[in-house]
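Researcher: Next entry: Acyl-CoA desaturase (Penicillium arizonense).
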Amino acid sequence: MSKPRGKLAQLVPRAASRHTWKTEFEWYRRNFHGFLHTSLVGPIVVIFLTAPYVVPKQNTILMAIVWGIIGGFSITIGYHRLWAHRSFTACIGIRIVLAVIGAAQNQWPILWWVKHHRAHHKYTDTDQDPYNAKRGLLFSHIGWLLGLNEIAWGPVDLSDLKQDPVVIWQDRLYWPILITIGILLPGAVAHCGWNDWKGGMLYAGVTRIIITQHITFLINSVAHASWAGTQPYSACTTARNIPLLAILTLGEANHNFHHAFPTDYRNGVNWMEPDFSRWIIWLWERLGWASDLKTASRLEIEQARLNQQKERTQRQGGNHEVNQALFKLPRMSWEEYKQRSDNLDNLICINGVVYNVADFMDDHPGGRDLIQQSLGKDATGLYHGNHLHSPHADNILKGLQVSMLEDSCQ
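Model: Predicted structure:
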């Protein structure tokens, strides 16, 4: 890694990728995924052909709704907030239950789900984002699966999940769990309870799975659509807050808040941001089943809101004050920076400013390894690369400042 040069680098917005109908058609043709087409479209055909001959009983419909809500929580609380963002820690019993019920929603194993979701957050709205919203509603909703190309996704760190025995266990037994818990169990309950095994399997099984899938997909598509919702916290990404959709998605459609504060176990902090998943996690903590609930501070949230309300003029117009604060930091030469890094000090350099990241490495949304490989180097390109960091991330970084490189003051 070469020595950084000149003054503090300025963040230059990148031009958005352009995707025409022709390029999109070629994408789907080249990356046609037969299995995913079958698993996503096939059940809809089955429902359409068999529904006229299977009239569900009232208890079956009620079971399908309840089972669908429980399944939705397994994705929002388990797959998303627990495993993808490490927003809290759960006991082994809760993790097993979330892994089993999550597998029954046919949204694929935790490892694979977290892989694409972490890539989405790290490379939001770029070509390395698995469900890049700038490629249109169809692509961000389901097209990214029908034309699957994992090679195009940006790399992410999954080392923490590979050390979780529950995640590995679920990955190995995913298909038996899906078939048994997701389809056969509803049929067995309906058969033993009110003699409706066909309705149980079709409506509380297959139909419920399809509906739960597409409710999840709405977060990737509608909650990133330019015509939908509001952006009260940040305009750095396409993510929107949509209160009505948040009710349907158990809190997930408070998406602008989530992208601004991705490690917060909450996806909303006021009554206009309904978040049922948040309160279940809160209750689990009171019962001793969950711990280490991560939250953004009230000050950080309010600062983000004010910055956005003023169209970020305060942040952009305050560059002089920011630079004045930077020049008050103690000076450090590049050689001293390298020497302290060689002595195992957890230092990184961004834009000529040195930061001590020792207490932040385990909380970094992109994973500890991403910071580990940047220690003792110039990480400017990494910080301002494919992922556009939010004002919340900038504020966290500001609190880690320890010094400024001498060459950056010249």
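Model: Note for the record: The chain has 19 helices and six strands.
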